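User: Can you fold this complex?
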Amino acid sequence: MAELTFKNVIKKYGKIEVIHKINLDIKNKEFLVLVGPSGCGKSTLLRMVAGLEEISHGTISINDKIVNDIAPKDRGLAMVFQNYALYPHMNVFNNMAFGLQIGKTPKNQIKQRVEEVALILGLEDFLKRRPHELSGGQRQRVAMGRAMVRKPSIFLFDEPLSNLDAKLRIQMRAEIKMLHQRVDSTIIYVTHDQVEAMTLADRIVVLRDGYIEQVGTPLELFSKPVNTFVAGFIGTPPMNLVECKVSKQDKNTFIQFESGLKLPVPEKNGTKLTDNQKVVLGLRAEEIAPGAVDTSFPEEWIFEGMIMVVEPLGNETHLHMDINGVKIMSKSEGKKIFKPNEKIKLHMNLNEMHLFDAKTTEVIY
Ligand SMILES: Nc1ncnc2c1ncn2[C@@H]1O[C@H](COP(=O)(O)OP(=O)(O)O)[C@@H](O)[C@H]1O
Ligand SMILES: [Mg+2]
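Assistant: Here's the predicted assembly.
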């Protein structure tokens, strides 16, 4: 059982503050993913939890006990790094057993624990090999095994899959998720990869420049991004974000692009906008579909555009479109074939439109 609380946590390196007053509660058995671009402070946060980095201000608590001054080995956690950090001269068994050996666990218990975990991870035939005799995926499993044998109440993962090729990454991702379903541990997992974050997390924390931008379930972040940063960070392809301005005519409200193109705003949302307000329109590629997908949409939601680039992915196709000078991405489900320089009709699902204030970047609706 392990709950974790960050209270006003600040980290300074010298005079430079890189983590700014972070407040966060992590629940028992939660799979929490910290995601954000390189340099945003993910590793620093994790290392402060592990006790590898001093906390400049504020507190981190595990089960309501402040751990700021507790030694790493006494915090009941285990960390898995990107570079595995295996001992090259030790075989797999000893790499996995090392933490228990220095902890003076009885020998037979160590053997039992390592063999149990090796079985779970499919490493039982590799226990006598050294790290250089293993594939990247196997090494990563050993690094995970070493953490698992200690039965930690909290697992910390710092970009554990970054060194693996794409196929293995997807396989290991599923294994980590299975591991979480099998053990009763809380997991804090760091990645710069939003797909990894979406697929693994119970809840995601989006970090930028040492600030939390948004905390939520994968679906919440996808459907209700609170600002343009989260909107553009989560989702593949990223949400279309286009600067434009509000134009009011009588009772009707429009979003007007620089090119002159106008979109009607669904009536219920018009009242939240003022004439001439600068806004950023956000619309996901799948909400700008070629052809009349849903004929219940009003006519004025259909636009003609020119296909610039076609990216077929098998069961869907991404289209880089030019609609009257506005560049957007469109997504077509299925195996329909498209050609560049072709003019096609696009159906914009304006019910799924997001609007952000251009100045604050925060969501209006
Ligand atoms: N030991 C250090 N000394 C000084 N600055 C550091 C140190 N470690 C990290 N930083 C800085 O802190 C910020 C956050 O780094 P880090 O936590 O490693 O980011 P991430 O893991 O998200 O890529 C970066 O600007 C980085 O340059
Ligand atoms: Mg890092």
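The pocket of adenosine-5'-diphosphate (ligand 1) is lined by residues 13, 18, 36, 38-44 (CB under 6 Å). Residues 166-182 form the longest helix (17 residues).
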